[in-house]
Design goal:
Elements: H1 2-34, E1 37-42, H2 57-65, E2 73-76, H3 84-98, E3 102-106, H4 109-113, H5 118-134, E4 138-142, H6 152-169, E5 172-174, H7 200-215
Parallel strand pairs: 1-2, 1-3, 3-4, 4-5
């Protein structure tokens, strides 16, 4: 009996380093997961334009993260009126300051509404994607569409830009931020461009479907 106890004790001693190492690795994994920072780089659609503070989809995202994802930090660097060129100019400083692990890139709508060159928009988005990938960030590209009155060709090329970039760069893609709002004018403010507070949870769900897998 004593010999059996001694044998088991010796085996436990031999296994102790492996047990300790596994424990440390698990702790490191948890700490890494809990320390994620998500940078949202967007325009008025992410900056609560025309909404009461705290009702935009990014703020709702922060509230959703409380609890299971409580260690995740959201940095909302969105500015009303921002274009892809403006986001490109700001991205490096934002990466240096916040050191995020995930980038939600929601830009391009203002480029389209101003009728700017799709080639320039594509170049700016590509540059930001490349910069984020160089910094080893996971990128979620948020797709947008513009009204048909800009011409069939321009509207089509603009809509196709986001899935094209996502496929080429193997990015998570939100096909259309307004997906699910459809022909519901009551979901938009009087300018018919910016969604109301009631639309924000739907927009959040569209982004959440792509973000959730990256938080695991």
């Amino acid at each position: 009996m004593r010999a059996l106890i001694a044998l088991r004790a010796a085996k436990l001693v031999r296994m102790l380093p492996m047990i300790l190492m596994t424990s440390l690795l698990m702790q490191g994994t948890v700490a890494h997961s809990a320390s994620k920072t998500v940078l949202v780089l967007g325009d008025s659609l992410s900056a609560e334009y025309g909404l009461a503070r705290g009702t935009g989809w990014v703020t709702l995202l922060e509230k959703r993260l409380d609890g299971k994802y409580a260690g995740t930090k959201i940095v909302n660097a969105s500015i009303s009126g921002e274009t892809t060129s403006g986001g490109r100019a700001r991205l490096d400083a934002l990466l240096q300051k916040h050191r995020p692990q995930i980038l939600i890139l929601e830009l391009g709508a203002n480029d389209g509404l101003r009728g700017l060159s799709i080639e320039a928009t594509e170049s700016n988005l590509r540059a930001m994607i490349a910069q984020a990938k160089k910094a080893r960030l996971a990128v979620i590209l948020v797709g947008m569409q513009i009204p048909p009155n800009y011409g069939a060709d321009y509207t089509r090329r603009f809509a196709n830009l986001y899935p094209k970039l996502a496929k080429e760069n193997k990015l998570a893609l939100v096909p259309f931020l307004f997906d699910g709002l459809g022909d519901q004018p009551q979901m938009f403010q009087s300018d018919r461009i910016h969604p109301t507070a009631e639309a924000q949870p739907i927009m959040l769900d569209n982004v959440w479907s792509q973000l959730k897998p990256l938080l695991r």
